[in-house]
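Supplementary notes for students who missed Thursday's class. We covered one full example, reproduced here. Read the sequence, then the structure, then the short commentary at the end.
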Amino acid sequence: MMQIKRFVCNPLQENTYVVFDETRECAIIDCGCYTDGEKETLSQFVSEQGLKVKHLLCTHLHFDHIFGNKFIFDTYGISPEASAKDADWLEDMCRRAQILGIDCEEGIVPLGKDLKEGDEINVGAILLKVLAVPGHSAGGLVFYDPKEKVAFVGDSIFCGSVGRTDLPGGNQQQLVDSLTQKVLALPAETMLLPGHGEVTNVAFEREHNPYLF
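Structure (token representation):
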């Protein structure tokens, strides 16, 4: 059975998720750990739970979602898996963070795997399917578990809102199309775990998200 632990990280209050099951294998999704304290809190949880980190998954490569990639690589030897369509964000992380006044001296970890629509990721007995949802970024992804009816949606959709599209690689119509065709097409009870803020679900967003009517 899937278990999920959320950590709220960095100045932009980004959601980092650790996903695991009874096999003790885990995936870290969107590791935004920025401070030493945030990194220690996550690693302590992994240690206390006896988890083995198998994947570092990125819904997209905006800097607030990848601050912790170097920490994960140095600690567990795991490279990030994401869409190569966002690679320019990976390479330019610190400069873009500094534009917002966020100090950044983290090293860059190259992608370990270019994820695409239809890929499947095994984490113990958990199966995550990769959905391509461009619009917030060119390479936006969702990681969906059809058995548990859980989707990690990054910054593509929030409770009653959607991700911004004014950054390089963003496209508003593309995002709306991605969400209506992929995310809102999931079963109504599917939980949506976003990159910021609280959990929502498909049924609520179908009825109440003004950006998707």
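Commentary. The first strand starts at residue 3 and ends at 9. The mean pLDDT is 96. If anything here is unclear, bring it to office hours.
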